[in-house]
Design a protein that fits this description.
single chain, 185 residues, alpha+beta, seven-stranded antiparallel β-sheet
């Protein structure tokens, strides 16, 4: 196959995928302007508005039909723009990680995992944590940080992270963008 044929084949398959799953790095969601909330990357912002304002977060099944085994933890709070972990207080982050881990343990026992994608690959403006069953055999990828509790989980600078148990410790993998791929779809 010539280089030109390969490029045409690549464009034929990858451009449609790119159009479907574009990163949400240019979030235009504005709760005061309902027309802006019709964009795909704003769907979790819309979902958050359906929940009472006095709750800190909620759980929802992942809407992607390709991820039937996934749940999401979504903060109720939304401040506009691309929401990041750094936008939450340490107390809010600890509560969120604690709840996500508890839900994941409830669903998957000792095979649990939680993840959040980096800002370069996220397809939603609204921050969310993926909850699922950890795919076995992936433990060695990424830079590893061992922590004792959710309060010690670091705040990445634009990168994703994924977490799983090892005994009584939490293993945090940092430095990756597409972190959710370690969880069963």
């Amino acid at each position: 196959m010539t280089r030109m044929q390969w490029l045409k084949l690549f464009a034929l398959f990858m451009i449609p995928l790119w159009a479907i799953a574009q990163p949400a790095d240019s979030c235009l969601c504005d709760l005061a302007k309902p027309e802006t909330l019709k964009a795909r990357q704003c769907s979790l912002c819309v979902e958050a508005e359906k929940h009472p304002s006095d709750i800190p977060f909620f759980f929802v099944k992942d809407a992607s039909p390709r991820k039937p085994n996934r749940q999401l933890l979504v903060p109720r709070l939304y401040s506009g723009g691309m929401m990041e972990l750094k936008d939450l207080t340490p107390k809010q982050r600890t509560a969120m990680w604690t709840a996500a881990i508890a839900k994941s343990k409830e669903l998957w026992g000792d095979n649990w995992g939680v993840a959040t994608n980096g800002s370069k690959v996220r397809t939603q403006c609204h921050l969310h944590i993926h909850i699922g069953r950890l795919i076995q055999g992936l433990e060695k990828s990424g830079k590893i940080i061992v922590v004792d509790s959710p309060a010690q989980i670091p705040v990445p600078k634009g990168d994703g992270l994924w977490i799983h148990p090892r005994g009584k410790k939490l293993i945090v993998h940092v430095g990756e963008q597409a972190a959710e791929t370690v969880l069963l779809r």
